[in-house]
Amino acid sequence: MSRVEVFTDGACLGNPGPGGWAALLRHGRNERELSGAEAHTTNNRMELMAAIAGLEALQRRCEVVLTTDSQYVMRGVEEWMPRWIAKGWRTAAGDPVKNRDLWERLAQAVAAHAVRWSWVRGHAGHVENERVDALARAAAEGIRDGAGAGP
User: Fold this and answer.
1) Does the predicted model carry a pTM greater than 0.90?
2) Is there a contact between 110 and 77 (Cβ–Cβ < 8 Å)?
3) Distance (Å, rounded) from C-alpha 151 to C-alpha 140?
4) Looking at 19, 20, 38, 47, which residue is catalytic?
5) pLDDT digit string (tens) for the chain, length 151 residues
6) Is 47 a catalytic site residue?
7) Residue 101 is a catalytic residue
8) Is 133 a known active-site residue?
């Protein structure tokens, strides 16, 4: 099984507001950058989209180390998601899980691989995290300024 490193980040200009996500995939010396944006979204949705896009880009089952600065995403997958699923996508308080559509998509993407999660503090000089942060911000700024906003 191939070993792949995935670094992800999401950004939002206002919360909600225009947002961007980015993922850097690394297999040996090969790298691939992915990014995207939405005109009206939240930071949490962009963090989720970064992880989803990074995992969905993999063509076959891989051993993945996914590095994120999002406690929301990492704790969601490792701690909260099993309980949400068991409770029919309800929180401990009985409320519907926010961003359920993306959590379900992430659950599918994670199940397709052997994923180990790694957390890094954002904006603390971690080279790859700074790189995906810049890509996510550029995507958010691009959609805010009309680039790629479509008709």
Assistant:
1) yes
2) yes
3) 17
4) 47
5) 899 999 999 999 999 999 999 999 999 999 999 999 999 999 999 999 999 999 999 999 999 999 999 999 999 999 999 999 999 999 999 999 999 999 999 999 999 999 999 999 988 999 999 999 999 999 999 998 876 544 4
6) yes
7) no
8) yes
